[in-house]
Amino acid sequence: MKFSIRRAVAACLILGFLAAWAAPRTALSQESRVRDLVRKYVKEKKHDELAKLVGFSSSVEHVVALDYTVLVRADGVETAVDPMKYEFTVGDQIRVRIEPVNDAYIYIFHQGASGHRTCLLPTEQEKPPKVTGGQPLDLPDDGYFEFVAPPGSEELLVVATEEPAADLALLSNVVFAKPEDELTEEEKKLKATLQKTVQKTLQSIQTRSRRTRAAFSEEVVREAMRGQTRGILEEPPTGNEKSSFAMAVSTERGDLLRLYVKIPLKSIASER
């Protein structure tokens, strides 16, 4: 099963979004307020206020936060969907929009149902892009990814970091190695060693990407962070929000903080 990374180039015409999920007004008001407060404190670097909000006993030292949106294109219109709930159909075209709250380096990997992995960002011979807080990053930036047969379950892994990471650079470089038949014996041995390192790193990422995913309220956030010095929180599209929101936060001064977000992409066969 493969998720095609061929691009169906077309003008990006954003005319509509998915209707908001129904929920009590009081709940929506509280959930939006908490997400907005997190954004506000991160942007303004009010780390003491952020620590109080999430229930930490000491000030936040590091934080990486972003919004991500999966947009499905149909009849020239892009619609935001929650990838945790949505079933894509073979032939669907999508783009993924990442918008960090604070400046961050972004890496994006694709894993197919067969386990085959591809680095989508950075592209070949590039360094990871440093995305300015508040500026959206679209992938792809000039078209769409398209689901092709056979259907299956796949995922995108987004990693946002405060600084470029050597092990993630290794991951992205390995997938752009020369074809096997062009490698020297020494290069083949090096590639085999690198592949083992890649597998260990990705397995570690899969473990560390486990997080609490729920609609934000002060009670939910504080319960998830109770007794912790670091953690990852994620909120699905809620109320008028069309994006999912994710945050990694730590009180550990020397922490090299990373935010890991797994975006599932489950496709089914078209009935047409």
Structure write-up:
With 272 residues, this protein is α+β, with helices and mostly antiparallel strands. It has one domain. Helices cover 25% and strands 33% of the residues. It is built from 5 helices and 15 strands.
- What integer is the average pLDDT? 77
Biggest sheet, in brief?
Answer: 9 strands, mixed
Which class best fits the helix and strand makeup?
alpha+beta
Total of helices = 5
Beginning-to-end CA distance, first to last residue: 19 Å
Rg over CA atoms, rounded to whole Å, is 19 Å
What letter string, H or E per element, gives the SSE order?
Answer: EHHEEEEEEEEEEHHEHEEE
Unreliable sequence segments: 1-32, 204-210
How many discrete structural domains?
A: 1
Count of distinct strands: 15
Strand content: 25-35%
Q: Estimate the global geometry from the Cα principal axes.
A: globular
Give helix % range.
Answer: 25-40%
